Amino acid sequence: MEFTAQQIADLLQGRVEGDPEVRVNRLSKIEEGEPGSLTFLANPKYEEFIYSTKASLVIVNDSFVPDRAIGTNLVKVKDAYKSFAVLLDTYNKISQNRSGREEPHTIASSAQIGDNPYIGAFVYIGENSVIGNNVKLYPGVYIGDNVTVGDDTMLFPGVKVYSDCKIGKDCRIHSGVVIGSDGFGFAPQDDANYLKVAQIGNVIIEDHVEIGSNTTIDRATLGSTIIRKGVKLDNLIQIAHNVEIGEHTVIAAQTGIAGSTKIGRFCMIGGQVGIVGHLVIADRVKIAAQSGIGASIIKEGDIIQGSPAFFIGDYKKSYVGFRKLPELMSKLEELERKLEELQKQNNG
Fold first, then answer.
1. By percentage, how much of the chain surpasses pLDDT 70?
2. What is the pLDDT of residues 48-94, one digit of tens each?
3. Domain ranges, residue 80
4. 119 & 199 share domain
5. Total domain count, the chain
6. Fewer CB within 10 Å: N-end or C-end of the chain?
7. 4/60 Cα distance (integer angstroms)
8. CB 200 within 8 A of CB 221
9. Are strands 202-205 and 274-275 parallel, antiparallel or unpaired?
10. Same domain, 85 and 46
11. Catalytic option among 208, 241, 248, 278
């Protein structure tokens, strides 16, 4: 794919400074730019590279004013970082714009397939499943019985969706994701064995959700595990049965959420966070990486850290004290020594 500087400027609602007909056919970092490549400058600490880059075109902020000669062409936009993100998204849509059906694949006779699908090799679609328009199912995707997949959704290679689950419109589900496997439900028995509790619910994923590779979302025991509209999940996240994650919440990698916990809207959860079951997390809460959450967070907008986690301001003060413990212990020992000497002198 090849584009002129003017075509890119039109897409981004920007303006060209330099040659509007210069052509680019690939993307690059600014420090690794080569002729024919397009890059961007948003972070001032990389500004020095704009004077040495070999890239043919650089997207910059309207406010950027060079302090010496530049050997490249510019597209000036309101926000270079957001504009480059738009460009990457457009590039992705073009490069991933597949259609048609590859062989072999298996589609149940009762399944319904919308217009303009892409069905890769070794895709399986079960009985009574409904696949929307412009859906892309990459090779090796498994769709169980009675599954719904909304319009414009993409399931990348190896995604597994168990029976009765529902996926909304314009979702991106990356390789290795498992949706709807059994929740971790076992009842202890008198003989020290465990009786498996049947998991007969499902998973509901609403519109505009993105799920990173190898994340797992368990089906509910009863009812539904629910991922609300606009949620973004990183790789390697475990979401247990009957969890509900509110709209537009983002969660980083290796986080684990135990069963029946309800997480609010617009929350931000760092990597390797552990959240125990049956809790409620208020809207707009921020949880720092590696925190352990053992109690509900009821105050909207709270920022917490630690394991067990508590308010981040108190955590930082406590951490300062913790770091000074060796010094404080030495001082305490010195004071105890002096006190003993004084007591000896008084007794003498």
1. 99
2. 999 999 999 999 999 999 988 899 999 999 999 999 999 888 887 77
3. 3-95
4. yes
5. 3
6. C
7. 16
8. yes
9. unpaired
10. yes
11. 241
